[in-house]
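Usage example:
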Amino acid sequence: MNSEIVGASVRRVGGQERVTGRYRFVGDLRLEGMLHVKLVGLDCAHARVDAVQADAARSLPGVHAVVTENDLPRPMPRFGPVHHDRPILTTGYTTYHGEPVAAVVAETEELAAHAAQLVRVDYTELPSVTTVAAALDPTSPLVQDPDRRSGALAFTNVLSESRFGWGDEPGAAELVVDEAYVFPMVTHFAIEPHTFLAAPDHDGVQVWSAVQHPFALQQVLAELLGLPLAKVRVHAPDPGGAFGGKQHAKFEPLLALIAQRLSRPVRLELSLEETFQAVRRTMFEIRLRSGFFRDGRFAFQDAECNALLGAYADIGPRVVSKSTYLMCGPYRVPSARIHVRALLSHTPPATAFRGFGTPQVVWALESQLDEAARRLGIDRLEIRLRNLAGPGEEFMRGGKPADGDWGISLRRAAEEVRWSEPLPSGRGRGVAVGIKASATTGASYAIVRLHVDGSATVLSGTSDMGQGARTVLAQIAGQELGVDVLRVRVVMGDTALVPFDLQTSASRSTVFMGSAVRAACQDIHRQLVEMAAATFQLSADQVSVTGGLVQLPSRKLSFAELLAEAFAGVGGEVIGIGSRRGEHVGTHPLGGPPAFYEFSATACEVAVDDETGELTILKHISVADVGRAINPAQVESQDEGAAIMGLGHTLMEHLLFDKRGAVRNLGALDYRIPTTKDLPLALQSLLTENGDGPGPYGAKGAGEGGLFAVAPAVASAVAEATGAVVRDLPLTPERIWRALQDTKDPSDA
Amino acid sequence: MSSHRVTLDINGEPHSLDVTATQTLLDALRWQLDLTGTKKCCAEGECGACTVLLDGLAVNSCLVLATELHGASVTTIEGIGTPSSLSRLQDAFLAEGAVQCGFCIPGMVMAAHALLADQPHPDAATIRDRLSGNLCRCAGYPRILRAVQLASSQADE
Ligand code: FES
Ligand code: FES
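Running the assembly step on the lines above writes:
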């Protein structure tokens, strides 16, 4: 087989359009006759809306409508991936800062913005719930109307609660560590803010959104609008970064209804500030009580996990259940009791964010292991190696056994920072690992069209949001069909053209869609064998396909040569269909076992200025167990990007709320993310490739892992450098400095 | 809203635009000229996605009022290269694998282009410094920095 396509770092498919500014992202699309929408929100989180006075806005020339709940169906239709709790437009109350109460539609963006300022909303501000403590307090106001919820929890702010565990009651442990860890709310901050367009389309509707799951959006719109799926066409241009923040429907249903009502195309571009208010990462407070034997092995773990979701569930409950499923990480823990609550609050909806809750859980677990190592006098690398599950070991009771040799990646990370060599004072090293249960259920279909000249078109419902799916799928097709990547077109992002794909998330695309594309190519191989047999009057077993060539008893033919012969005078193409499904398993706590585990190890070396608390990351190593890299440079760049993004929540990022529940640091000026000046002095991503994944050529998913263990590795290094232990993120200089003051013996002062 | 006519040079071509008093160069490019390669993110001068060259200097076009541009010369990403004829710098971005989602990339290319025009052989610290106003959430920074270095080294040949 022409083996240099898979495994080669070919250039990004779509790269030329991007470096020249020619790629049309959703915000760059212009529809004939479109109107512009601006949303009207309040400057507090929780309020009763007494009146919306829109006459002044409506009377401006060029303003076509001011849409309020009164203009929309009653009862207000609701949607959401887990619960149908999110209204198309809120009714009577706002429940988080920025939740829109009206939408102004005007000829230009400028005019819509101006008219929105003329809309007067009379409201009564109400107390808001923005913390875990407030959400658990029975005297706090309820975030959701109990009439719309069911069960015993309806009159609380607990959206869901579960307890699970395994093993006997914990026996005697040498050491018990009992601490609480906080991972705050952070925001996705894709550089592309959310933009949505909708247009009436004869007896249906078309919507444009840079959405990760175009088919899920199609489903939501079809249900809300009472249309058949075939009449809802979702165009999903490649997102300009998504990171989980562009998975589910937001304002597309509102836009579709406005477009239908006004019989005009409409467009809504959120500002970065509004994008911050649309969705954010799930915040976690985790109290961990772990018992250890003298040799550092886990005796038991008790976890109390409280995850703060927003006002609507979005995919939050799944983030919480899926991440805490691996509360004990990749470790052997003989006895576990895990108590998990997902809480509602008056904050922007919590959704998926690269890692899907894993960085939050890993922060607590890995930090706690370090505390145990320090107290037991065991090396921090050693305590991990002693607990880490070996290949094939069922580390999670009843769960999928370890599908990798994770010790290899952990040791590599440690070696790269010269773990056992002495360090000058003021310096420290840290090492940590993280594991995520990847995609479980779900189907991906692909169609591959082999054209008569041997070039190919791949039709796939996956979204390329920067992870490079187009390139990987082109490489797989190129490999299987013996055609250069430059002669493969990958069509994505249009539900009217491409076959169904459940979603682009959980690092699933290479494994699921990659397998589907490969299967479609193999379907083509089968057809080519039949075609060659028929064309040359051979029996099928006299023909085979290898290395992009058709092998006949007497000679070899390229695919194009065979097609030219077989289609002479008639024309045609060979259409292959492939799929990969993860079936639903009702008895599995996740609805099905993960297709693979995403495992990552991070090691770093830091220097801390103990006068200021200022931190310098001298070296940062990220090791990803990827099974097999289809495009090594692309996997490494994903992993580096994840590592740097992880430094964001580790060192500087958190959303802050004021007493009225308003986000205090909306926008780029007040919310800092890493820049070129925040990079580690040396950063390296290493891939462990053992070919042990379930995807094509032994690949596993990748691209999230580099983020999992950044925070605990850095905090561990800070603790070694200074003795200061920080359990709340981010590790700002001020926090480190304060922790340093606490470690100083007052008699030294 | 009253409008003003400004005449300016964009990517080497003269243009006359009717702009309002509050309209930014960014919006004029994106909405009047359909030059959508220049991107909008923060709209407050903090992200660099909207970087263009104004009389040869890199500026955040979201902070520049279009009315002030009479007689000015503006270069946008569309004026730098085309998909079939990339500039050396654009080619270096692809060679180094510096592009992920690509949304920040036009701004990055413009900032780097201005730097190399100003200093053909910047050292690593200078590159880092001059690109620090351009955010990339995909965080392709290490490769972006290498791409600029590569383009600068090729400038010798
Ligand atoms: S959009 Fe101009 S600097 Fe961000
Ligand atoms: S490549 Fe995605 S923001 Fe830079």
